[in-house]
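B., you asked whether I could sanity-check this one before it goes into the benchmark set. Here's the sequence:
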Amino acid sequence: MANQIVASILDCDFRRLAAEVEAVDGQVDRYQVDVMDGHFVPNLSFGFPILAAMRKLTAKPIEADLMISNPDRFAAKYAETGADYVIVHVEASEHPRRIFEAIRKAGGKPGISLSPGTPAEAIREFLPEVDMALVMTVRPGFGGQSFMTGQLQLVKAIRAWSDELGLGLHVEVDGGIKPDTARLAADAGADLLVTGSYIFGSDDYRKAIATLRSHIA
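And here's what the prediction gave me:
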């Protein structure tokens, strides 16, 4: 499974969102929209209008990462609004299977995520029912944090389970991704690498992405 770069728009310049997307659209493989409610995580971010705008700006796949409480209330609407993948966090989901079904009915593909401190076993039973599993390599809520290498053991476990069951899951990491940590994540079994501040905080987006890609080739 080829490694892919996922651009998180959390750290882009929202005064010029269209230009930011245009600048990276030919170099990245997909996008992530971080949805935060100020309750499940200590930050507020995007809702449906930003996702709708993103859908008009790119034909690349878009992930909506729902870092929110009660994701069952909103997951299907994110798929309806244009998210190709809708990711729910196991810590916030009382009835994950119902959410997965609602996402699929709305035309999206479900994903499951877990944060630092949650064991990989918490999502094992759900893996046959999703298209991707996301391991947070920072504490969710803010961009620019340092990569937590201990989370790589979870990546390895989830990749092994996927292979054992023949699921062909995408395994994603999000948080602190730059060239050296991207290589570590890819070696552990991740094929989707989310990065925001590394790209949008650089002086040369194209060069930054090329450098990152060279480390995961």
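One thing to flag: The chain has a mean pLDDT of 94. Otherwise nothing jumped out at me.
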